[in-house]
Amino acid sequence: MRVSLQWLRDLVSCDGPVQELAERLSIAGFEVEAIDDLASQAAGVVVGYVEDRQPHPGADRLSVCQLRVTGPGSAEAPLQVVCGAANVRAGIHVPVALVGAHLSAVDLTIQASELRGVASSGMICSLKELGLTGNSDGIAVLDELLEVVPAVGTPVAAALGLDDQVLELAITANRPDGLSMLGIAREVAALTGGRLSLPPAAPVIPAEPLPVDPASAAAIEAGGLFSLTALSGVRVEPSPAWLQRRLERAGLRPINTVVDITNLVMLETGQPLHAFDQGRLALSGGGPADPAALGLRSARAAEAFSGLDGSSHELGPEALVVTYGDQPIALAGVIGGADSAVQADTTAIWLEAAMFSAEAVRRSARSVGLRTDASARFEKGLPREVTLTAADRAVQLLQELAGGQVEGRWLHQRPHQPVQPLRLRRDALHNLLGPVLVDGQAEDLADARIEQTLTALGCSLQADDGESWLVSVPPSRSMDLTREVDLIEEVARLVGYDHFASHLPDPIESGGLEPGQQAERWLRQALCQAGLQETCSFSLVPAQGLIEHAPRLGLTNPLLTDYGHLRDSLLDELLLAARRNLQASMPGFWAFEIGRVFQSEGESLSERSELAGVICGERRSELWSSAGKGRNLDYFEARGVLQRALAALKIPCEDRPNADHPLLHPGRAAELVVEGRVAGWFGQLHPQRAEALDLPEATHLFQLALTPLLDAATRRNRWQPAFAPYATVPASERDLALVVPDAVSAAQLLSAIRKAGKPLLESAELIDRYVGSQVEAGHASQAFRLRYRDARRTLTEAEVEQAHSKIVGALQKQFGAARRS
Predict the structure, then answer these.
(1) pTM above 0.90?
(2) Dihedrals φ, ψ of 778, to 5°?
(3) DSSP class of 793
(4) Other beta carbons less than 10 A from residue 482's beta carbon
C-alpha cells in the first residue's frame, strides 16, 4: 500500500518528521518498507524560459536552444542546450535539469557535453524523465500543464506535484483496513493523538430491490451484497490534476474521470468499485439496459472472457462471473470485461458496489493467473458495512467531477445480523498486559488512556458494572476485532509494547521435557544408532496415494492441487524417497519418520502420531563384513534392526503372524504387539508392489502408533532405572531344542519359558530355528539358550536340572513340544 503523505495530512494532523511517523507505524504493525521522496526525482531541475530556438547545424532533428534559468535582471548568460524534442520552441517555459542534476526516474546524471559539435549545458526534461505520466512524447511545456507558471529559476518540483513523500506499507492479512487511506488515517490518529479530518458522509441514495434469479441470489448472499447505481449525463474526460496525482502516487495510472473516481474511492475506503457502460450492455442485450438481466454465477467450462487489460481467458467452474443476459461481463472482484468498459463516448453507467466472498475471489483470480488491486482487497476480507458508503462517495464525486445524474439504485443483500458489543474487562486487560512504566514506576494503565486509545480507533465505549466496558466496534474493524483479547491487543499495540514493564514469573521454575517427550527423543536416537536415517516430509499430499486407503481429507482452499489433502500415512513419501535414492545409484535406503497423520472418523477428524520406516537395499558402510559384496537383509535381519531400537527403550514387543495386509508379503509379515495390544506391523513389501515401485524385492516396512510405544517406555518399572548389584556367583547355561508346531512362535515359547523358569532363570534367548527334512512336516525346531543363577549362592547340578525340567514340562503341556534329540 503506497500512502501519500500529503493526502494523509489532509485526513489527519501529523506534521512531525516522516521518519518518526514511519517508525511508529512499523512498531504498531504496519511495516514501512520504503519512503519514496518524490522531490528527489526533480532535484536540480528548475523552471527555464526558451528565449531562442535555432536548428542544429549538423542534425535535422536537433535544436539549439538558449534558455534563461535565472530571474529577471540577472547578469548570467543564457544556457545553451541541445534538444531533440519536436515540440520545443521559443517563448515557452520548460523544466531544465542543470549540470550535475541526477534524474532518478531514468537514472541519468546531467553533464556538460557536445552534441554533433555543439556545446550543451543541461537538458530540457519530459514528464517521463521526471517520473510522471503524460500524453505527450516531447518535452514538458509548463504553460500547457500549469494554470500559473512559477518564476524562472525556481525549483519545478512543487509546481508538478513532486513535493510529496510516499510511504510503502506492508499490510498483513488480518488488517484489511490498512488497504485504505481512511484506515491508515485512523491508525495514525490513534498512534499520535492527531485530529481526524475525514470527508463528510455523502448523501445516502435510496435503493429498491434488485430483481435476480434464485441462483444469483444465493451467490450474492454468499458474499454479502450486490448493488447497482444508474447514472446518466456522465462526461468521460481526463481527471483533474489533483486526482491524477493521488492515483499516480498510489501506483495507479489515470484513465478517465469515471475509472479514476472508482479507483480513488477504492484507495480512500478500501472498497473496490466497477463501472459498466449502460449503452454497450443495451447493445449486447438487444434492448434497453435492464437490471433484471444481471446475474452472478460460476463460469462454464472453457467459457471465453476478455478483460479490461486486453487479456483473453478460458474460464472454468472455479471462476465467479457477473453476467448480463447470461454472458460474462466481469470476473467478480477481479477485473471488468472489455465489452462493457467505459469509453470516451460513454454517457450512462451502472456503478457496481458489491461484496464477494474472499474464497470465491481468490479462486477466480488464481484460475486465470491474475491478481489486481481489487482482488487483493477482496481476498483479505472487507466489511460489508463499507460497501454502500463507498458507492455513495463515488456517486458524489461523479456528480461533482463528471456531471452525473442519479437515475436509481438496486440492491440485493443477505439479511443483516446485528453485531453485539464486546465486553472488555479491566482485570483481564491488566492481567494480560501487566503494568506500564510511568516515571520509572510500574502502574496499571489508566482507564482514560484505555478509553482514549479505543475511541481513536472508532470504537464507542460504555461503562458497565464499574469493572468493564461494552465496546462497539466500527464497521471498518469488524473483521479483526471480534474478541475481548483483540481489543486488549489493540490497546497494547497503540500504547506501545515498549511502555509496559517486563515482569518474569516469580519464582522462576526451570523447564524440562516430559517423560514422553524425552522417550521420543531417545527413540529417534535409537533408530539412528540402529542404522536408519530420519526424514521429514510434507503433511500435504495428493488426493491419491501409493497405498489404497479411505479417501484423504481435502483442504477447502489448497494452494496447489498436488498438495491439497492431508496425509493418512507416512509410508507413501518414504517409498518414493527410497525409489529416488535407488534411481540415483545409491546402494540402499534405510530411513524412518515420526509425524502426524490424519483420518476422518464419521463427522470428526482423527489426528495421531506414527512411526514408520523403510529398510531397503544394503548399507555401504557394512561392505567390509561381506568381503565387499552387496547383500540385502532377509526378513529376520531387518526385523532385528527395528528390535534393536525398541530394545534400547526396553519396549516389550511380540510378533504375531499377519497374512492379510495388502501392502505386505503374505508369508513375511507380522503384527507388533506391545503390552498385549496391537501397536503396528512389520513386513516385507509385497513383490507386486515392489515391482510397480521399481524397488528391490527385499524391501521391508514398518509402521507403529507412537503413543503405545511411549506409554510402554515410560512405565515406572522401565523408565526409572533400578540398581542391581553385579553377580558374584557363576551362572549355569543350558541349550534347549524343541520341536513344536510350525504355527507356534518363538515369542510364545519365550513367554512360557520365562514364566515357568522363575525364580532361577536369569535370561532366555532364541538361538536357532530350523524347518526342513529332519523334522516332521508342519513342525519346526526352535533352540533356546537358558541361563540360571541364584544371586546368593552357586547352584547345584540338581537344582539347575530341576528348574530345567520344570520348563520342559510346561512347554510340553502348553504347546505339545518335544525335545529334539
Answers:
(1) no
(2) 80, 5
(3) S
(4) 13
